[in-house]
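On clarity, I found the account of how folds are encoded harder to follow than it need be. Since the whole study asks how a given chain folds, the encoding of that fold should be made plain. The format is easy to grasp once an entry is in front of the reader. For illustration, here is how one protein appears when written out as sequence plus structure tokens.
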Amino acid sequence: MKLNVVVSLLLLLISTATCCPPSDRRALLAFKSALHEPYLGIFNSWTGQDCCHNWYGVSCDSLTHRVADINLRGESEDPIFERAHRTGYMTGHISASICELTRLSAITIADWKGISGEIPKCITRLPFLRTLDLIGNQISGGLPYDIGRLNRLAVLNVADNRITGPIPKSLTNLASLMHLDLRNNLISGVIPSDIGRMKMLSRALLSGNRITGRIPESLTNIYRLADVDLSGNQLYGTIPPSLGRMSVLATLNLDGNKISGEIPQTLMTSSVMNLNLSRNLLQGKIPEGFGPRSYFTVLDLSYNNLKGPIPRSISGASFVGHLDLSHNHLCGRIPMGSPFDHLEAASFMFNDCLCGKPLRACLKT
């Protein structure tokens, strides 16, 4: 009898030691109570005392048994979605109780389409947070002004929401940040002039906002930066030539702004493969200087005020896939040979006086 009691006590102690703390369980249930998910039943598994095992989207640290990861995606290949034959939909807001889970390293509450309210300001007090992914909801309000306190944050993704206000100045304190995605919000103000302090940044995606001002020169100091998308904003001024000297920059989308001046020649022989400068106020000639280092999957210069001839040196590029020079003031004969022999008329239409294949023949002189 005594042996059975001892065994029972031991089992109780073991199970208690491997369960999440009651405080974490309470915080999760408070977080759940602020949300409403009517179709999939993803919260049906959030029962029992042990939130570390079999609670959908919850993971715990194997040593401390504290909640370390909340991973709730409204678009997933998980069987729960396949059985329902639909993507997820959830309403409500993100409760401040999430901040009581002080060992969180990742928060992913993505693509639920209906979650609203603001990002809890207390989220900046989570010292171990490395991922904050809230893409695809209806979250409003501003980014926390002191978001720069999250010195371990590597991923910040709040794209496709209704975030307003400026980019916080403290953002540039995020020395570990690698992926910044603020696309398709209502963010205003300027890009912080000291963004170049973010030395680990590889992707800066800020398109589809109301950002004004100039492209900061310090952006070109981020040597890891491979993907820059500033399209669909209200940026003005000129393109820094130093963008063309960045060693790993592969995508540069500046389309749909108010950028003026001439196209830097450095961009024609840079590492950039996807270059979109369309729908701006660019002037002058398309730079010469294309050569073996020029490799463009996309080169879009349409809807600007470019003049003069199409540079013959484009034929010397290693590769040009999609080329769009339409809606400018270009004039002269379209060069022959690659890449021009595989392009359609739409690439050259609505210029002042271009001629030659694939447009009308040039008049003989």
In short: The CA atoms of residues 75 and 87 lie 5 Å apart.
